[in-house]
Amino acid sequence: MRFPLRPPLTSRDWLLLAGSVGMLLGLARLLDGQDHLPFDEQLLNGLGERLSGVSRGVLVLIYRMSGVGFTGSLVCLSLLFLIRKRWWHDLKLLVCATAGILAIVDLWLKPLFDRARPLDRLLHVDGRSFPSGHAAGAIAFYLAMVAILSWHHPRLRWPLTLAAVAWIALIWLSTLAARAHWPTDLLAGGAVGSAWLTICLAYWRATRPSPQP
After folding, report:
1. By the 8 A CB rule, do 175 and 134 touch?
2. Does residue 19 carry a pLDDT above 50?
3. Contact 121, 113 (CB under 8 A)
4. Domain assignment of residue 115, yes or no
5. CB burial class (10 A; 0-12, 13-18, 19+) of residue 134?
6. Cα dihedral sign for 140, 197, 193, 102?
7. Which of 56, 76, 78, 130 would give a disulfide with 113, using CB separation of 3.0 to 4.6 Å?
8. Is residue 43 one of the residues assigned to a domain?
């Protein structure tokens, strides 16, 4: 099977890619070397004031559950599932989406921007802050799996999409509740995750074979 050298992006893909890259560049310009912005602090403080002790505790627990250990285990289980089903083309997509976003965020963008996390976070979190790997990784992994499962089971497309979007939104909310990231970190992470997944899905669509039972 011939692999296209240029990303076979549709007009919709180009629009999403341009919007995502534009958002990342706009946020980076807005930061301009600052560790935090006034409205970042206001949003975190406003959310904290509206959360009760119980709801905050639940959200912090969700943040812990959606961390590297839990998500890494889910990725490994998903890879084993794809291997067992012999969905080799889909396996390439998942590896590319998850490993690629990890490299882009942790090895390139975070060292580049070198932004500190909020000081008064509710749990110990290492690493730099911008863009959020939580936000980027959630989009790359969960929506890649939605695309894969929807291709083989079209009737599940909308239930899977709604469930994934709801879970991603809950991860973002829990990240803010734990004060592990600034709100602009999440927006940047979402932009990076969306851009990378768009490219991965474009290659996947262009080269995928017919669905196997």
Report:
1. yes
2. yes
3. no
4. yes
5. buried
6. positive
7. 130
8. no
Torsion of CA 132, 139, 105, 122, to 10 degrees: 30
Print the domain residue range for 131.
53-207
Note whether 116 and 180 are within 8 A (CB).
no
Q: Which residue stretches of 11-132 are H helix?
A: 11-31, 38-50, 53-65, 68-85, 88-102, 110-113
Would you place residue 82 in the very low, low, confident or very high pLDDT band (cuts 50, 70, 90)?
very high
Mean pLDDT lowest among 19-33, 48-62, 168-182: 48-62
Q: Residue with structure tokens 């975190």?
A: 44
- Asked if residues 100 and 199 have their Cβ atoms less than 8 Å apart, the reply is no
- Which pair of tokens denotes residue 56? 């905050």
**2 located within any domain:** no
Whether residue 47 lies inside any domain: the answer is no
DSSP 8-state assignment for residue 10: -
pLDDT recorded at residue 16? 94
